[in-house]
Amino acid sequence: MRTFRRIGRKGLTMMCLAMGTATGGALEARPAADAINALGVRLLPLADAPDANALISPYSIQTALAMTYAGAAGETRAEMARALHFADDEDSLHNAFAALRAALEQIARDTEARAARSRQFGGPTDPVILNVANRLFGEQSFEFRAAFLELVRDRYRAPLQPCDFIRNAARETGVINDWVAEQTQRRIQNLIPANALNELTRLVLVNAVYLKAPWEKPFAAAATRPQTFRVKGAAAAAVPTMTETLTAGYRREEGLTVLTLPYSGGGLHFLILLPDAPDGWKDLESKLAAEQLASYARLPAREIRLFLPKFRVEPPLMPLGKALRTLGMRQAFDEPRGSADFDRMAPRRPNDYLYVSEVFHKTFLDLDEKGTEAAAATAVVMMRVTAIVERPDPVEIRVDRPFLFAIQHRDSGACLFLGRVTDPR
What is the extent of the structural domain holding 294? Predict the structure, then answer.
C-alpha cells in the first residue's frame, strides 16, 4: 500500500462497505436503486477476468460510497455524484438508502411471521435472513464534524466506535475484521488486509451484508443430476444440475431468456440473464444497462421446467480503487494531488486533509436446492494529507451455458448482488 507512505501523509481513513406499480416505499428508495444498478453494470466487467466467474454487491459498494459522499465537498462531491450516478438532491439520496434498507428488513420480518404461521401446519419454516450493518471505526484522538457523524448515524445506522490506530493499528485491523466476520456469519473473512492500516489511519467506515434466502419453491435434491454445461462457452462438462417445475417471471428477448426465481415471500428474487449463444454473455455484459435491470424486476409469471446448475462463487478480495478512478472518481483519490475535498467529514486545511486511498470489496454466494446464501463487505480507504388465465404448457429452460445473474429487490429493482457464471464447477 504505497499510497499510505507518500510524503506529507499524516492520516488514513478506511471505509468498509447486499411488477406492477411500485409502492410508496419503493418509490422513495428509487434514487438509491438507480445508483446501485448503474454502478453495478459498470463495475461487473471490471471485477475479474472476462471469462471467469465474478460477483460484486453493488448495494454494499454504493452504501459505503454514499457514506463517503456524505463527507465530500466542492468539486470532489460533484465528481463523485457524476461517477456514482447519485441524485442531485443529496437529502433524497440518503433518504433513499434508508428507505431501501427499511424495505429489505421488512422482507425479513414478513417472512419470519409467515414461517411462524406455517410451522403451525407443518409447512415451510425457513424465513429470509438479512443483515445489513454499518459502523464507523474512528481514531479516538481525531476530530470529525458532528454533522457528518449525525448524518451517517441517523440515515445509515453507523455509530462511531473509537479506536487507537496511532498506537496499535494491527489490533484495530483485527477488531474490524472480526466485526465484519460476525455480521456476515463468518462468510467474509479478513476484509482489511494485513498492514493496510497503520499509525496514520483515522477512520474506517464499514458496510457488511449477509443474506440467506430460501426459494419460494425449493428444488428436490433427489432430482439433481449431472448435466452438460458449456464451460466458458466452449468445452462441455458435467455439473450438478437442479431440476424443478415452478412458477417464475419469464421474458423472451432477441437472443436472450430472462427469468426471475422468487425467494420466500416474493420480496426478493434470483434474476437469470441467459444468452442464446454459448459465448453471448460477453456482449450482454458489455451492453447491460441499469434501466434494463430495473425492467426485469416484475416479469409476467409463467410455468417453467428449469434446469439450473448449483454453484458457489467466492472471488478473492477486490481492490476497486482503480476501477472507480477509471469510471471518473479521481479527485476523491487526490488525483491531481491536492484536489481531494472531504471538508464535510473533517476540517480541510491546505496541508491537512483526507482523501480516498483504496476501496476493498469481498463477496460470497452459494446457490443450491434450498436457496441462496450470500455475503459482502466493502472498504473505502482514505488518507489525511499534511502539506391467472388458461395455463400453457411449461417452458423448458436449460441453463447450460454461461449466464449473468442478480439477487434483486422486487419493488425497487435494486440489485443486492450481481455476477456472472462461466464455470459452475
Answer: 221-311+389-421
